[in-house]
Each structure stands twice: as structure tokens, then as C-alpha cells.
């Protein structure tokens, strides 16, 4: 089965009414300004991926994603057999950057392949779980501590047993926030934090021990990515696990970080590494006896379900952050993700297991001029 053509469709979906802008130390979002990537085979089958525009993280926008898919990859991938994954990866690797454009293409091709083979994607990849994965929500920074605590309480009421709290703007306020959340949710809820590289050394070395006293078990990106020495010093001085995220863009990046001894958990994000590179990163981490989390770029249904399939496929992924999906007002897929008792349950249909709602896609698609 060969690739016939590739479409890239930009769309915008807002948050639910009453859901405030999601903030972190390096930026914020109030809507999904993403791109649906659709790969069509020569026998008329479809595969789907979702590219998330995050300019402060990857330097990409909807326009650059659209241009990368159409100008760099669509013609070169045309006629390639979908089973020739190394050839496909070589084409993607030939252009630097454009992480989420490449990630969406990779996912769409793997979705198409699994549909052709008539198996769920997670079964084709590894089949580790029963088709469900644990989900953790991101508790984002609100205007007041009280608002953020209310968010945390609401998530635990849904059956979430682990919370990830966004910090990294002001270490004193960060500690006060996490302390308030701990008092509100009790001692049975697991807490970890994500500073998104927002602290400097002084802030991180002051805040992390105090967060550990609040029962925080892990800290994600506590320092700027370039400060590898600072991360290693922090890792040696605290019982909190250090999570690598922004610098986990390739197996080589992860190998170098793990060799340096400053990372205890690797965050996999399928929007930036698709399936192929995600698998290689997972296996690299496993060689160092390091577990992986499956992170999120606030995907809508296409990306959320794709991430869940990767998490369900591999034994070395022990947590996901896919509950962020619950913020969206609507979706462009017919079969929505199913959440229950703190888990996301996947369909047993082939591929990613959903179909696109054409009416919704037409409603939310936007026109972009390049």
C-alpha cells in the first residue's frame, strides 16, 4: 500500500466555556490552533495525525506546519510504501526542525498502516496494555491560588489520582500554591510539578526541597535546558526525580542527557517525535533503566488518542498526561476519547480507532495564506 497524497488542514477549537487560558512559565494557550494531517493511500484509505503549533517550544506556527507538510514532504512521500518506515524516517530526517509537522506525518502513516492491517495501532506497535492508560491532568497557572486549587479538586473528583502542577514563575508563590493543593487534595494524591525551564539555579535550589516537603515526587524541567550542570547538581541533592521534556527531541538528545546522569524520567511527546522516534527514545531510556511518561501538547482528539496508543503499546511508559483533552469545547472526530476512573480507554477498531466528523472539520477549519 503506497501513499497517494497528503492533506494539511489548519483548524481552531476553543476551550469550554468557563475554562480559562492555560498558562505556564513560557507561554499560554486559549484554543487549539492546530493542523490536521491526512495521509491517503492508493487504495483510498486514510490515516490521521495532529500537528500542534507551539512557537515558544519548537518555533512552529500553523503557517510553518502547513508549509512544511506541503512544500517539504508531501511530494517526496508520494508513492512510498507505508511499510517502509526507515525510508520514510530518512525523508523526514532530511529536513531539520519542523518537529510537529514531522510528528503528525509519522503518526498519520502509522495510523494508515494499522488500518490496512485491521488492528488497533497499540497492538501493531507493542500491545503491552489492555487498551487503557492512566491519565494525569495538568493543573495550569490561574490568576489566584484559590482558582488553581479548585481545578485540582475538580480533577480528583473525576477519579484522577496523580496531578501535575505548573510552576516556574515565582518560587515563593510556586511553593505556596503546591502547599495549598496538597492541603486540599490530601496525602493520597500523587503530585509532581513542571517549571518549564522557568527557574534559575537560585530559585530551583530554594524551591525544590520545599516542594519535596509538600510530597512532590518529581520535578520537570526545573532549569533552562542549557544548564545541564545545574540539573545534575540538583538531581544529586534532592530525592525528587528529575523529568526531561523539552530536550527529548531525538534518541541522541536523550542518550546524551542520560549519560550525563541528570535525568530520572523522560517525557515522550508524540506531537514532536511521532511513533518512530518515540519508540527509539523509549528504548534508549529503557537501556538506562529510566521510565517514561507520555506528555501532552494539549492535543485535541486526534493527538490525544494517538498518544494513548503509543502509551498503551510499550511497557516502559508508566504515566500519561492526556487528561488535558477535557478542556476542549468540541472536536473534529466522531468517536471521542473515553475517560473513566482516571484512565483513557481505547477503541479496539483498526488504527487510531476513530473517523473524522466532516461537518465539524468544516466548521473549525480556517484558511491560511502562505
Task: Please tell me about this protein's structure.
With 370 residues, the protein is an alpha/beta fold. The protein has 2 domains: 125 residues, Enolase-like, N-terminal domain (Enolase-like, domain 1, 2-Layer Sandwich), CATH 3.30.390; 222 residues, Enolase-like C-terminal domain (TIM Barrel). It is built from 14 helices and 16 strands. The strands form 4 sheets. Strands 7-8-9-10-11-12-13-14 form an 8-stranded parallel sheet, covered by helices on one side. It has a 3-stranded antiparallel sheet with strand order 1-4-5. Strands 6-16-15 form a 3-stranded antiparallel sheet, covered by helices on one side. Helix 7 runs parallel beside helix 8 and helix 10 packs parallel to helix 12. The longest helix is centred in the N-terminal third of the chain and has 19 residues. The protein is globular. It starts with a strand and ends in a 6-residue tail after the last helix. The mean pLDDT is 94.
Write the layout of secondary structure elements.
Blueprint: E1 3-14, E2 22-24, E3 27-29, E4 31-41, E5 46-52, H1 55-58, H2 62-77, H3 85-93, H4 99-117, H5 121-125, E6 132-134, E7 138-139, H6 145-157, E8 162-166, H7 171-185, E9 190-194, H8 201-213, E10 216-220, H9 228-237, E11 241-244, H10 251-260, E12 265-268, H11 270-273, H12 276-287, E13 291-294, H13 301-313, E14 317-320, E15 338-340, E16 343-345, H14 358-364
Parallel strand pairs: 7-8, 8-9, 9-10, 10-11, 11-12, 12-13, 13-14
Antiparallel strand pairs: 1-4, 2-3, 4-5, 6-16, 15-16
Amino acid at each position: 500500500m503506497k501513499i497517494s497524497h497528503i492533506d494539511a488542514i489548519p483548524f481552531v477549537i476553543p476551550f469550554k466555556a468557563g475554562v480559562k487560558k492555560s498558562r505556564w512559565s513560557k507561554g499560554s494557550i486559549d484554543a487549539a490552533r492546530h493542523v490536521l494531517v491526512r495521509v491517503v493511500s492508493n487504495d483510498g484509505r486514510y490515516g490521521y495525525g495532529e500537528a500542534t503549533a507551539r512557537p515558544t517550544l519548537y518555533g512552529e506556527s500553523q503557517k510553518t506546519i502547513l508549509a512544511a507538510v506541503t512544500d517539504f514532504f508531501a511530494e517526496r512521500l508520494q508513492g512510498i510504501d507505508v511499510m517502509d518506515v526507515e525510508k520514510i524516517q530518512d525523508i523526514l530526517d532530511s529536513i531539520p526542525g519542523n518537529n510537529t509537522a514531522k510528528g503528525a506525518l509519522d503518526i498519520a502513516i502509522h495510523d494508515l498502516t494499522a488500518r490496512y492491517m485491521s488492528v488497533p495501532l497499540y497492538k501493531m506497535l507493542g500491545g503491552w496494555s489492555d487498551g487503557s492508560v492512566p491519565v494525569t491532568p495538568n493543573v495550569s497557572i490561574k490568576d489566584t491560588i484559590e482558582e488553581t486549587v479548585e481545578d485540582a479538586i475538580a480533577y480528583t473528583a473525576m477519579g484522577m489520582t496523580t496531578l501535575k502542577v505548573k510552576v516556574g514563575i515565582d518560587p515563593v508563590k510556586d511553593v505556596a500554591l503546591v502547599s495549598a493543593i496538597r492541603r486540599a487534595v490530601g496525602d493520597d494524591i500523587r503530585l509532581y510539578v513542571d517549571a518549564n525551564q522557568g527557574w534559575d539555579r537560585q530559585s530551583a535550589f530554594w524551591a525544590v526541597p520545599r516542594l519535596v516537603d509538600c510530597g512532590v515526587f518529581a520535578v520537570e524541567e526545573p532549569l533552562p535546558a542549557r544548564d545541564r550542570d545545574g540539573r545534575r547538581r540538583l538531581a544529586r541533592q534532592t530525592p525528587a526525580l528529575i523529568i526531561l521534556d523539552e530536550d527529548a527531541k531525538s534518541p541522541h538528545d536523550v542518550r546524551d542527557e542520560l549519560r550525563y546522569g541528570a535525568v530520572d524520567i523522560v517525557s515522550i511527546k508524540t506531537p514532536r517525535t511521532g511513533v518512530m522516534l518515540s519508540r527509539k527514545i523509549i528504548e534508549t531510556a529503557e537501556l538506562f533503566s529510566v521510565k517514561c511518561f507520555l506528555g501532552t501538547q494539549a492535543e485535541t482528539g486526534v493527538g490525544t488518542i494517538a498518544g494513548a496508543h503509543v502509551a498503551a503499546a510499550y511497557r516502559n511508559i508508566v504515566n500519561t498526561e492526556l487528561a488535558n483533552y477535557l478542556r476542549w469545547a468540541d472536536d473534529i472526530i466522531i468517536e471521542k476519547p473515553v475517560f473513566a476512573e482516571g484512565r483513557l480507554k481505547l477503541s479496539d477498531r483498526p488504527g487510531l480507532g476513530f473517523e473524522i466528523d466532516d461537518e465539524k472539520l468544516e466548521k473549525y477549519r480556517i484558511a491560511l495564506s502562505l
